[in-house]
Amino acid sequence: MKVDVNTVKKIAHLARLEFDEAGLEKMKRDMTQILDWEEQLNEVDTENVEPITTMSSEVNVMREDVEGEHLSHEQALKNAPQRDSDYFRVPKVLE
Amino acid sequence: MILEKFLSFDDIQKSLENGETSVTAIVNYYLQNIQTKAHLNAFVEVYTDSALAQAAAVDQKISEGKAGRLAGMVIGIKDVLVYKDHEVNASSNILKGFVSQFTATAVQRLIDEDAVIVGRLNCDEFGMGSSNENTCHGKVLNAADETRVPGGSSGGSAVAVQANLCTVSLGTDTGGSVRQPAAFTGLVGIKPTYSRVSRWGLIAYASSFDTIGIFSRNVKDNALVMEIMAGPDNFDSTSSKKPVPPYSELLHFDKRVKVAYLRETIESPALQPEIKANTLALLDKLRKEGHEVEEVEFPLLKYVLPTYYILTTAEASSNLSRFDGVKYGYRTSAAHNLESMYKKTRSEGFGEEVKRRIMLGTFVLSASYYDAYFTKAQKVRRLIKEFTENLLNKFDYIVMPTTPSTAFKFGEHSNDPVAMYLEDLFTVQASVSGVPAISIPNGTDEKGLPIGIQIIANSFKEAELYAFADYLMDINQA
Predict the structure, then answer these.
(1) What CATH code would you report for A5-42?
(2) Scanning A15, B128, B164, B221, which has the fewest C-beta atoms within 10 Å of its C-beta?
(3) Where do transmembrane segments lie in this chain (chain A) (predicted)?
């Protein structure tokens, strides 16, 4: 899979990452190399094979809905990079 | 000094029973070793105060005859396992300064049996790496040769036990991150069956692969810690409800078993000659002991790593989306609006390998490529899992080298991501299949570097795996 710079930019936006010009070029090369290597899987016949979607053998795990402890307001805000008395603070969403 | 003989938990317990030592003295002994060997960079933080407080409390319990089963055991934990009121970074700048509000279930169960948690251990960022070079804490040195890597991602956990800085350590194994460093440092390292140990409190990398594993000097210590850590947990709905046998009491081994080895592993061009020779020599010993040893073909071997990387990068891109600078961890100071805050925070906070994997994962999950990559890999995963399970219905164990080479030099694979990925060639099969696997020492190469041998058993056969591993350690010494 030949990845071009526009694809790298599009994927970077989806992943909420950004790269400078040199970083975009390097990511383009690395992704092309790794995806080419991953495409070996096309040699495997998977006709009529169901994709596997869970690795645990437990199904529909149920438990009683019991009241438990939860983090206090103060605790929940403890690791916040920016906060006020009640909320996490972020930069302006609307200009 | 009396403590010099503490190379197994049995030794520690004996000395405690005889009243020759105390838990406080044992913790001080390890704290001293940690200081002397600080240049190895295994520990990123030593919990001197909380460890000594725990030790004093356990000593008190011992004097009252109320001590738990791990009294005297001193444990280091990988920097991806959370411990209440202690910092944890996953070796990433994006979690700088983060202090956990709770304790991982696996860690809590050890504390409940009176183990002392002595500190947190260096690793590759979010468990992504095979050399412990991708870390915000600086590289870890292999104590067998300080110019070489300890393996990864749980490199600090390996070196901590190798250099006798703690009794056992916890690592995590997603594609070989306990077994490969165990091989590189001459230790016993297990990856249990997927879902055997609760993942609650393990900072996620790839949730359908992640397991918590153990490093130790001998099989018995490993088995004891596993039987205490394993079992169902209300906080992890994937954790298995199957009963946990007392592994450490089931080590006796006296049967004749059927062992398979995979032709493609032994004949791999990447395999170092001494590793091949030691593997074949061990298989020969097994034949002489009367076991059935048979070569089988595993034509899917070359597809195991690509399958692993498609699925783990996809899961990682999803798991790591939570690191956005809003509620915890690092936040950029350069943002002018919310979207640029996300992007700059993540771009400044994550390391290069983590960003590469997030990008690849986002790519294989994107609408245009989802079926061609992600769904395809899920199908091949089923084929690999079924092949492995069928083989383990016919044979008791699969035996193969843990790694293609012994510990390599720093920087040796830094410029070629695929070359680094190939380090995990032999360990990922068990991860893709979800079955348990253990690495134990199998001699050394010409340079004196440790070689590991890996044993794989069927799901939830940890008891059989430990017993056979212990037996192999014995016949290897004979």
Answers:
(1) 1.10.20
(2) B164
(3) none
